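In this supplementary section we document a worked example of the pipeline. Step one takes a protein sequence of length 494 as its only input; no multiple sequence alignment statistics are reported here. Step two produces a three-dimensional model, which step three serialises into structure tokens for compact storage. The input and output of this example are shown verbatim.
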Amino acid sequence: MGFVKAVDFLGGLLMVSLLVNSVVGIGVNWGTQATHRLPPATVVKLLKDNGIQKAKLFDADSAILNALKNSGIQVMVGIPNDMLSSMASTVKTAENWVAKNVSSHVSNGVDIRYVAVGNEPFLSTYNGSFLQTTYPALQNIQSALIKAGLSSQVKVTIPLNADVYGSSSEKPSDGDFRTDIKDLMVAIVKFLSDNGGSFTVNIYPFISLHNDPNFPVDFAFFDGYSAAINDNGKIYQNVLDANHDTLVWALQKNGFGNLSIIIGEIGWPTDGDKSATVELAQRFNQGFMSRFNAETGTPMRPGPMDVYLFSLIDEDHKSILPGNFERHWGIFYFDGSPKYQLKLGSNSNGLVPATNVRYLAKKWCVLSSSANLQDPQLAPSVSYACENGDCTSLGYGSSCENLDARGNISYAFNSYYQISNQLDSACRFPNLSAITDQDPSVENCKFRIMIQAESPANIGSGAGAGAGAGYLKKPHGLMMMVMMLLLSLTTMVL
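The serialised model returned by step three reads:
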């Protein structure tokens, strides 16, 4: 080709590269494991009203992707772990998935930038379930993107938990990949590097604090930590920087020190644990956003970061196996109302709530004033309500821990009643329950009114999707919490 055409061609390639790899604004994780979901169009408006420019999805929900059409929001679509085996089996399966969930939406105006192959598939708690399928699935999805002509626009990645690497000391410079998966990790990292992908890692200072009672609290935040780590002149005053740079060292030691890094999840929950409070969540997220907006970066990677906050909205149907806090990561409640003041950008005045949200009637299901706490039907009724509702705010250190026995029972009844769309039949616990129009909330313990659910036909196929009690599945880990609640009720009665 001629010189001018060659310059134009190279310039075009450069522009494509800049567009694909540019880091713009803050992102959020948009999860859908809720009994009642806000309409996708409402959530997209919520994103735009708050200046959020990127959304990370855990699947490829067509209703959500259609709502993101021409929104200007960059999207990461996900392939759930239970699909990795089929994606790894044949390239044709991956091609069909890309055609349906990427190509069709890109051509329809959805700005898809990444495909996330799996979600934390190498967690040690999975006992190696996805070790044989994740990398082949990644390769097949990349091949499918190439065949579809999208590989310059849409990149592949694997959101990984930070447990895939570690340090033999407290210093990041001693970091390397986990010995049992090191060869696999190096192969994946090389593949990502060769194909212009990024290393996506989920980092949770809250979990460090939750799992270790001796963990220094201030090290989880960004206010300065007096016992900072000095790693050959690089100073670490918070766990995020130390964790992130442990990864940087692991990449560097294996020959990929320049691979771009995405923080796929970072945040702080507001309920369900003594350390999961609105105050601490505001402290963490605002501290992080101030650093993000200042483009401080980390000692090993100063400058702008590519980040997705976890998460956008609370999900009342998530598994609570890791802890009751799992349902309370959102910076917004389930109805899109802000939990606390949070400035996402330098020009932000705080979070903007969702608009035009439709609620059920202002009525609650509570323990009847004439109910007998010795009634033999009480325990099974509370157990049923919690199994099919959400009692995670009743535990130790949670927002409703100070309720008395009657208050605990009322909270359980109301949760089930609201999730059941206020059906009269959902407040008919024998000789125990009654419907009231008087708000039973006590201080910070809110007896919330549910939003009107989307019809099942519009819910989509995302994990945990559903509308109302008829679509509920019993989440893992809930029975243990119910038994503890019933034990506490018995103690209070006695």
